[in-house]
C-alpha cells in the first residue's frame, strides 16, 4: 500500500472502531449482562454471517436481536416458526389483485424475509420444506417466487433461535444446513446480581430503549473494514492447524479426536475463523488479528461443525470438550 492508501485506511479504521464502540454502549444500556454474546453477535454481523442462538426461554434472545436492529437502524422482522408455517409465509407470494379499471393481475406481496435483520424464532419447530425456504435465502441472498428472482436488500442477516429443552414436535436442522450458520451461540442464565438488575429495569414504569446510532450504509461500511483487518501468516497457520486437527483422518489429528470424532470441520470453518478473528480484533480496537481472537471465536464457529461419534456420546464427551482439548494445543 502507498502512504496515501495507508492513511485512508487508518482513518476508515478509526471511524469503524468508534462506530462499533457506540453500538456496544447502546446495547449495554438495554441488555443486562450477556457481554460475550453481544460481542459475538456483533462479530457475526461484521462478517455478514447468520447466527444460531441456543437457549431456554426467557433469556432475552428476542430482545437481544431487536435491540441490535434498533441500534443499527436496520429493518427488523420476526417470524415465529410453527409446524403449520409455509414457505410462502416467509418469502411472500403472488396475490390476485384488481386495479381501478377492473383488470385483474397477480402482484407480489413480499414476506418478512425482506428485511435487513430477520429473527427466526424457534427455527426447529417448522418442517424441513419451510426451513429450506429460509436457508436458501440465507445462502443465495435472494428468493424466487413464480419464476421471478428477487434480491434481498443488503445487509441481510438471519438470527435464528432454538430451545434446547423441548424436543417433541421439532424438526432438527441437518448438519449440512447447520453449517450455513456462521456462529452457533449458547446463551446461559444470568448471575444473581444480573437477574436482580433485570428485574429492577423491566418491572418499573420506565424501560430503556436503544437509540439509533448507525444505519444500513454504516453497517455495510463496518463490514468492509472488518475484511481489511490484517491476518498475520502465523495466525492463518494456527487456524488451518486447528481445523485440520478436528478431522480424524488428518495427520494432525490426535488420539482424542480419533477416538471421539465422527466428522471434523470443513474448509468453511477455516474461512469463518479467519473472518471472525478479523472482526473481533476490530471490535476491540486492535490493528491486527491474533491467535487470542482465534481462541475466542473457535467455539461458536466449530460447535456445530464437529460431529462426535457414538463413543463420545457414551463417554459423555461433548463437542465443546473436543474443541477445548484442541485449543489447549495451539
Overview of the molecule:
The protein has about 325 residues and is α/β, with parallel strands linked by helices. It folds into two domains: about 1-205 and about 215-230, 3-Layer(aba) Sandwich (Rossmann fold), CATH 3.40.50.300; about 230-330, Magnesium chelatase subunit I, C-Terminal domain (Helicase, Ruva Protein, domain 3). Helix content is about 50%, strand content about 15%. It contains 14 helices and eleven strands. It has helices at about 5-30, 35-45, 60-70, 90, 130-140, 175-180, 190-200, 215-230, 235-245, 255-260, 265-285, 290-300, 310-315, 320-325, and strands at about 50-55, 75-80, 90-100, 105-110, 115-120, 140-145, 150, 155-160, 185, 260-265, 305-310. The protein has a five-stranded parallel beta sheet with strand order 2-5-8-1-9. The chain is globular. The two termini are about 30 Å apart. The mean pLDDT is about 85.
Amino acid at each position: 500500500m502507498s502512504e496515501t492508501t495507508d492513511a485512508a485506511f487508518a482513518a476508515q479504521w478509526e471511524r469503524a472502531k468508534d462506530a462499533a464502540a457506540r453500538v456496544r454502549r447502546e446495547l449495554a444500556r438495554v441488555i443486562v449482562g450477556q457481554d460475550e454474546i453481544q460481542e459475538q453477535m456483533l462479530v457475526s454481523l461484521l462478517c455478514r454471517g447468520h447466527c444460531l442462538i441456543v437457549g431456554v426461554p426467557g433469556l432475552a434472545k428476542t430482545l437481544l436481536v431487536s435491540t441490535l436492529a434498533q441500534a443499527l437502524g436496520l429493518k427488523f422482522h420476526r417470524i415465529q416458526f410453527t409446524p403449520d408455517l409455509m414457505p410462502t409465509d416467509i418469502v411472500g407470494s403472488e396475490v390476485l389483485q384488481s386495479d381501478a379499471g377492473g383488470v385483474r393481475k397477480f402482484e407480489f406481496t413480499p414476506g418478512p424475509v425482506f428485511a435487513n435483520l430477520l429473527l427466526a424464532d424457534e427455527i426447529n419447530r417448522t418442517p424441513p420444506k419451510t426451513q429450506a425456504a429460509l436457508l436458501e435465502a440465507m445462502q443465495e441472498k435472494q428468493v424466487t417466487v413464480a419464476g421471478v428472482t428477487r434480491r434481498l436488500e443488503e445487509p441481510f442477516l438471519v438470527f435464528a433461535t432454538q430451545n434446547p429443552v423441548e424436543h417433541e414436535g421439532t424438526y432438527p436442522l441437518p448438519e449440512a444446513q447447520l453449517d450455513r450458520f456462521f456462529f452457533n451461540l449458547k446463551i446461559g442464565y444470568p448471575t444473581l446480581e444480573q437477574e436482580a438488575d433485570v428485574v429492577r429495569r423491566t418491572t418499573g414504569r420506565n424501560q430503556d430503549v436503544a437509540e439509533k446510532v448507525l444505519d444500513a450504509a454504516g453497517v455495510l461500511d463496518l463490514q468492509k473494514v472488518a475484511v481489511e483487518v490484517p491476518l498475520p501468516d502465523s495466525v492463518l497457520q494456527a487456524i488451518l492447524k486447528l481445523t485440520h486437527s478436528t478431522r480424524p483422518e488428518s495427520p494432525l489429528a490426535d488420539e482424542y479426536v480419533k477416538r471421539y470424532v465422527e466428522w471434523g470441520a470443513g474448509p468453511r470453518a477455516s474461512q469463518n475463523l479467519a473472518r471472525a478473528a478479523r472482526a473481533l480484533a476490530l471490535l476491540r480496537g486492535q490493528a491486527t488479528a491474533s491467535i487470542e481472537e482465534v481462541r475466542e471465536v473457535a467455539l461458536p464457529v466449530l460447535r456445530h461443525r464437529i460431529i462426535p461419534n457414538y463413543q463420545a456420546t457414551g463417554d459423555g464427551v461433548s463437542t465443546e470438550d473436543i474443541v477445548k482439548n484442541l485449543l489447549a494445543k495451539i
